[in-house]
Amino acid sequence: MLLQLSSEQEFFQKTTARYLQDNAPVAELRRRRDDPEGFKSRYWRQGAELGWTSLLVSEDDGGVSISGRGLVDLTLVAYEFGRHAAPGPLALTNVVAGALSAGQYADKSLIAGLLDGSKLVAWCISEGSPDDGLANLRFEISQEGNELVLNGVKRSVESANQASHLLVTGRTGSGLSQVVVPVDAPGVSIKPMQGVDLSRRFSLVKLENVRVPLSAAVGAVGGADAAVELQLQQALVLLSAEALGAMQASFDMTVEWAFDRYSFGRSLASYQALKHRFAHMATWLQASHAVCDEAARAVNEARPDAAELVSAAKAYVGQYGAELIQDCVQLHGGIGVTFEHDLHLYLRRLTLIRTLLGTPDVHLRRLAELVAKKENGRGE
Question: Which domain covers residue 20, as residue numbers?
């Protein structure tokens, strides 16, 4: 990130980096390749103690911020998660905790559990192609008397296998609703999915005629559109910051490799053709820093251009981040495609992130629609 950090923010970021280096080393990531959970609960609780989960929650519910700009502070943690390919549902947990707090959810113990890391609530938003949860949600949430009835399928739900509850986003009439559902409620089934990342776990969640009391709603039934849009923007900012961290780690690793590796008596970094490739990568990297930083500011300040900027960030980082890390793999030569080398950890993380909550193509279309809508509004 290129943000001008305060001393408190610098300390917060460095503390997170040291913790991840000590508790999520590469050897641990490899060891957990086939672990159904992906990370230890103790690891997550200790991270929560460092402040990872409290930055989007109101002070009345126990939230704190470092600079008064909670989302911007949180991007510093997300960036370090990307730099270390760290395990844990960072974006998911914070978005859900913020949603429950903003929606004045009645069960404060659930929010407290998210803050101290003792509980996880999986956000069921994505429904797969074509828009992956950005529009046209088909999941049905209907009201029958004092009950809410949920029917549908959500896919690529992170950490559902470790969650005690689900925050389900669906459609009630022409509006959106959000409902908290215990994972052991009748009609809920969770099926693990295969993924490319070594430590992230996703599931397909199916809800068939699941009934919960009306008090399980977060905010107004059928009136959660604005809340869901904010949650999407927050999640996209955090995912982009994490992808940026993976890009930076890959670039730094490759530059170091090029200076240390010699061919015909010269370091690889001294060859003009490779300098050109590094220059391209450095340009993509700096542009990614800039657009991610601006998107975080825009969402934190609730600016009118926030939706455009988060889609621009997700599209740019998804496209050029993939090109950058693929270039890094090629520059390493044969060792770059081996499991023993660390580079694939960042390629896996970037590959995963670019598909979550919309691919670059989806966000380019969304950005075009937002810009066209704005221009049409000016014309009227």
Answer: 7-116
